[in-house]
Amino acid sequence: MMIPFALIFSFSHQSAPSHTVKHKAPVVDQKSNLNGRVFIIMYHHIKDGANPMFRSAAKFRKDLERMYGMGFRPVTVTDYVNNTMKVPSGKTPVVITFDDAHDNQFHILKDGSIDPKSAVGIWKKFADEHPDFPVVGTWYVLPNLWGQEKLVQKKIEMLQSWGSEIGNHTVHHGDLRKMSDATVMKELGDMNLRLQKLGVPANMPFCPPYGSFPKNKALLKSFKYKGTTITHSSACQAGWCPAYSPNDKKHFSKYFMLRLHGNGRQYGIDWWLNEVQAGRCKVYKAL
Questions:
Q1: Is 173 part of any domain?
Q2: CATH code of residue 237
Q3: Rg of the chain (C-alpha set)
Q4: Non-local CB neighbours of 3 within 8 Å, separated by 6+ positions
Q5: With helix as H, strand as E and coil as C, how does 239-268 read?
Q6: Residue 266 belongs to some domain of the structure
Q7: List of E strands, the chain
Q8: N or C: which end of the chain has fewer CB within 10 A?
Q9: How confident is the model over 3-48, as pLDDT tens digits?
Q10: Is residue 20 part of a domain?
Q11: How does residue 177 score in pLDDT terms, banded at 50, 70 and 90?
Q12: What secondary structure letter does DSSP report for 216?
């Protein structure tokens, strides 16, 4: 699906300062922009390698450092879709999401500590050093749930205690577009019910594998399954660009959120942060 560049980019022209600033200049100005774009970043593996789904531990740490320096502060998908993104004045919300619940996202060592090379370990250390950038994000999970079965409940509770949320990513990670309504309901419904038993709120965010939506898009919102109503509060794309502001009533949709890849390729996080710094992409800034 192609989106016209006019919708992807917002341009601004700023003149260079005419005087020397003796103190350290802010990376971003403090002018608010409630209609600017919102970064919803999609990570998969935190590991070395050339695969576009991989982000090395060192580069993930640099992502956090760069975003922090540019004034980004983390919120959840639910904060975004409900337009309740509570970040300081002049700061920019960012939604950090993780798909598939790989072990390298959240691993606990034998001594009970968090693996410092895992995504959570890296982010938690950064958050301890920068309390205004807490481990607040959205984790779209599969049944493997980070690979340590006996620690699943503990991990979910830890993430929730920091302000993160858990989302549904289906049972088998299949292409929903190719499935019957009954199969789609089973994929979404069984995982939703499983997560509810682990303390995840019933009306949880949802992420279709591969960004492939079912033919019957009404199933993204709610349906009857096993004697109960299954609901999901939102649905996101696999993505290639920042999402629309929730104040942009013409383009914003809770059930078609755009995301961008957490990698160094074109239209990945490095590329889009460069666009922001160059003034070619206007991002949301809080009042």
A1: yes
A2: 3.20.20.370
A3: 19
A4: 241
A5: CCCCECCCCCCCCCCCCCECCEECCCCCCE
A6: yes
A7: 39-43, 45-46, 54-55, 72-75, 92-99, 138-141, 165-168, 204-206, 222-225, 228-235, 260-261
A8: N
A9: 333 333 333 333 333 333 333 433 444 589 999 999 999 999 999 9
A10: no
A11: very high
A12: S
Q: Is the pTM of this model over 0.85?
A: yes
Residue identified by tokens 């109503």 is 229
Q: How far is CA 68 from the centre of its chain?
A: 16
Per residue in 124-146, pLDDT (tens digit) is 999 999 999 999 999 999 999 99
Residue 245 CA to residue 239 CA, distance in Å, equals 15
Which residue shows structure tokens 């992807």? 8
- The CA distance from 209 to 206, in Å, is 10
Read off the DSSP letter of residue 9. -
Q: Return the number of other C-beta atoms located less than 10 Å from residue 167's C-beta.
A: 27
Which residues have CB under 8 Å from 250's CB, separation 6+? none
Q: How far is residue 17's CA from residue 22's CA, in Å, rounded to a whole number?
A: 12
Q: What whole-number distance in Å separates Cα of residue 120 and Cα of residue 125? A: 8
Q: Which of 20-29, 85-94, 102-111, 197-206 has the lowest mean pLDDT?
A: 20-29
* Pairing state between β 92-99 and 45-46: unpaired
What is the spatial distance between Cα 30 and Cα 25, in angstroms, rounded to a whole number?
A: 12
Taking the CA atoms of residue 3, residue 96, residue 43 and residue 204 in that order, the dihedral angle to the nearest 10 degrees is -90
Cα separation, 24 vs 54, in Å, equals 34
6 domain residue, yes or no: no
* Nearest residue to 259 (alpha-carbon basis) of 273, 274, 241: 241
The residue written with tokens 């629309």 in the block is: 244
Residue 175 CA, distance from chain mean position:
20
The token pair that represents 130 in the structure block? 């920068």
pLDDT at 30: 57
CA atoms within 13 A on the CB side of 235: 20
- 128 is in which domain, residue-wise? 31-277
